[in-house]
């Protein structure tokens, strides 16, 4: 989704994103995983979005475009149909006020749902795919005409170009407060957004560096088949957030003196979630605590990756 918004923003000067209500989505597609309030806030937190329209109509009309003073609308190159099988963009296409962007291959909502339900680890960045997973995913992603390129489960291929497109490219400036946060940031969600927003408010000029743990490290402390999103997907999800300036891809689990000195970190923050000890039983935040630069931050949100997975499982029949 972030990549679609990034491409759309690059086509113009100001990006307005219409977000549908739960009711509209349930009618045309099925029950959404996130509530409309969660989705409004999530979309607003993506750095290429200038404004959102809550409760936008499912079918994009010229009337809507004119109402918000938009020259054109953008959608991915996969078609969306209404409940009665009509192209939802027909009217704006005819009027020549429609642009298309490339759908991001290798990751989709359907694919992520599949990973949660199948409980496999084949999506992790350096585990050979197991045949069991292949078999399930083939069933999972087939339409009437065989395999769909959009819903079939496929590996997301990271490139340096993608990272550059998502990265802010801004170095910390003199006077910036350099804040370090670390975690899995799996299935980047409103709990993460609320936490990062709170951290962002701690300083006049915050420069937030997010350290992301490798898949194997996350699996060590989270267990099961976590993380649901591999390191490449998590990197881009976090970079797309407007509060984050930089990401450390594969950060060490223990926040070391080397890391703090290297990035000239002034403050280290962690949310209210449990901190699992390091392999040797030590506290990963020992060093920042010793320096007196560690701070717990309450995001005010109780949403966790676990809860999202539970919502999916509860809705699995509907999905």
Automatic annotation (TrEMBL):
Q: Does the keyword Hydrolase apply?
A: no
Keyword list, A-Z: Lipid biosynthesis, Lipid metabolism, Nucleotidyltransferase, Phospholipid biosynthesis, Phospholipid metabolism, Transferase
**UniProt domain Cytidyltransferase-like: residue ranges:** 1-113, 181-271
**Cross-referenced SUPFAM superfamilies, in alphabetical order?**
Nucleotidylyl transferase
Protein name listed in UniProt: ethanolamine-phosphate cytidylyltransferase
Entry keyword annotation includes Lipid metabolism: yes
UniProt record similarity statement: Belongs to the cytidylyltransferase family.
Query: Which terms does the record give in the GO molecular function aspect?
Result: ethanolamine-phosphate cytidylyltransferase activity
Which Enzyme Commission numbers does its entry carry?
2.7.7.14
Q: In which pathway does it act?
A: Phospholipid metabolism; phosphatidylethanolamine biosynthesis; phosphatidylethanolamine from ethanolamine: step 2/3; Lipid metabolism
Which CDD domains does UniProt cross-reference here?
A: CCT, ECT
One GO cellular-component annotation of the UniProt record comes to: cytoplasm
Q: Which InterPro entries match?
A: CCT (IPR041723), Cyt_trans-like (IPR004821), Ect1/PCYT2 (IPR044608), Rossmann-like_a/b/a_fold (IPR014729)
Q: Which GO terms describe its biological process?
A: phosphatidylethanolamine biosynthetic process
